[in-house]
Amino acid sequence: MYFAALLARTEDGWQASDTELDNVETLADLADLAREAAVDDDTVLALIEQEDAWFGVVRVDGEDDPRVFVSDGVAAGRSSYGAMLVDELIGRDDSDAEDLDSLNLDGTEDGEPEPAEDEDAAPGSEPLVPRGPVGDPGILSDLGVTHRELLSLDGDALSTLADALGCTDVLEAVR
Questions:
Q1: What are phi and psi of 58, to 5 degrees?
Q2: What Å distances lie between residue 71 and 77, 86, 91, CA to CA?
Q3: Residues in a beta bridge with 16
């Protein structure tokens, strides 16, 4: 079970909204959703948690590229929303998959394929998902959560983050 919320920073503090991720397929979709919740291009945090197994923070500041942190790449990679974030962080792209037109499907082989110069560039190879935290651990440093604090979170991490950001009541209202 997932919990996802958007925290929009305003002049008066944080505003939270529960969010449905049903139509979110890419990080760009999530960033667009966050920008819709923004007030005057201020910071918006998309917080995602899956049953205390992993959590993710996506930070959107205006039209800047989103910044991402995921607490456990392997655990997150096992879930659809987590995999979306991890894939973005490690550079894995679904569009890199070979299309059917480029495959030899007639059952004949002209010989062994040429060895790849770079192991990461070999056809069919994918970047490995890192164990543990992946992404930008300094994503919340200017908001009062140091990279060390972020890296040490476990259990109910989103509540701890809300406490540190001063928006516990706001986040709990949408939980």
A1: -120, 125
A2: 11, 10, 17
A3: 7
pLDDT at residue 95 is higher than 70 = no
Structure tokens at 169: 């009541």
Q: How many CA atoms lie within 13 A of 42 on its CB side?
A: 15
Phi, psi of 25 (to 5 degrees): -115, -20
Q: Which residues are CB-contacts of 70 (< 8 A; sequence separation ≥ 6)? A: 54, 55, 56, 76, 82, 85, 86, 89, 133, 134, 135
Give per-residue pLDDT as tens, 17-35.
888 888 899 999 999 999 9
Is 24 within 8 Å of 12 (Cβ atoms)? no
How far apart, in whole angstroms, are the C-alpha atoms of residue 131 and residue 150? Answer: 16
